[in-house]
Amino acid sequence: MQIARRSSILNTVLLAFVVGGGVALAGWQTGTNGALLGLIPAALILGLGLRRAVRRWHLARTPLPDRNRTWLSTHVPLYRTLDDSARARFERDVQFVLDEYSFEGVKDVTVTDTLRLSVAAGVATLLHGRPSWELPGSNAVLFYPDRFNDTYHESTDGAFDGMAHQQGPIILTAPAVANSWAGAHDANNVVLHELAHLFDFDNEGADGVPSLVAILRPYAAEAPSEFFAVSVETFFEQPDRMARHHDELFRALVSFFHLDPRTGTRTGHPEKGTGKKGASDVD
């Protein structure tokens, strides 16, 4: 995640210049002071267009609370492998998510700092090797009190702990989120699983093969849609095991995420891919 894309900043400034200049020219024809009217639309365009960049710039300079750092160090395997510089970027991404995502509890679910941090850590984990990306899809997260069925109602025979949508909120059950990071190496993490589906949706609906994972052999396209999401869970929580037993799949995911989770080392230079991204960005 970046503070801003250079292209976005340049486009905003150019639009402010063109619109403000046009209004100023029209105002100038009515009188000398009329030219000052051009400052109004220019200021509005700059304010709206650069609002998120300015907010992120301030967040990037705000330290993550020590209690959150302790939680990340205790529960997130990738975070523990990172050096100081990489940890600072990971923490910055967590700050961005906590600030920009909306979190809502359904029924009697209280949205705690730990629930919010659990989701933010998942986003930061998936994007760490691709700092120019933003996670595709919605920024809204709903926490359900218990498992639910395919009509989104709680049910004793509910089959779902989470569900991601191409357009719509990410739904997660609070107990499953709590368990996701409790066993950091069990490869059972509903947060990573559902967030991974958002990459998959970027490829015209979930088919188990997100657009960049065309590097996988064709057999991957024949697997259920859960193939990619489950692979991501194992990749981040049991990377050594995956590398030993499924080397080609492991290397494909390293190529996709530009990250080796065994060491926290970034690989390659991400310039193309899926999700919302820009080739020239402001750190």
**Strand order within the widest beta sheet:** 2-4-6-5
What fraction strand? 5-15%
Helix content: 40-55%
Which ranges are low-confidence, i.e. pLDDT below 50, for 5 or more consecutive residues? 212-223, 270-280
> Structural class of the helix and strand makeup?
alpha/beta
* Count of the domains: 2
Shape: elongated
Number of helices: 12
The first-to-last residue Cα distance is 8 Å
- Determine the mean pLDDT: 83
- Can you summarize the main beta sheet? 4 strands, mixed
Cα-atom Rg, whole angstroms? 22 Å
User: What is the number of beta strands?
Assistant: 10
Give the ordered list of helices and strands.
Answer: EHHHHHHEHEEEEHHHHHEEEE
Please explain how this structure is put together:
The protein is of the alpha/beta class and 283 residues long. It folds into two domains: 54 residues; 210 residues. The chain has twelve helices and ten strands. Strands 2-4-6-5 form a four-stranded mixed beta sheet. Strands 1-10 form a two-stranded antiparallel sheet. Strands 3-9 form a two-stranded antiparallel sheet. Helix 1 packs antiparallel against helix 2 and helix 11 packs across helix 12. The radius of gyration is 22 Å and the shape is elongated.
Q: In terms of topology, how is this protein built?
A:
Elements lengths: L3 E2 H23 L10 H11 L1 H10 L5 H10 L1 H5 L2 H17 L1 E4 L7 H15 L5 E2 L5 E5 L17 E2 L6 E4 H7 L9 H12 L24 H12 L1 H7 L1 H11 L1 E2 L4 E2 L9 E2 L3 E2 L1
Parallel strand pairs: 2-4, 4-6
Antiparallel strand pairs: 1-10, 3-9, 5-6, 7-8
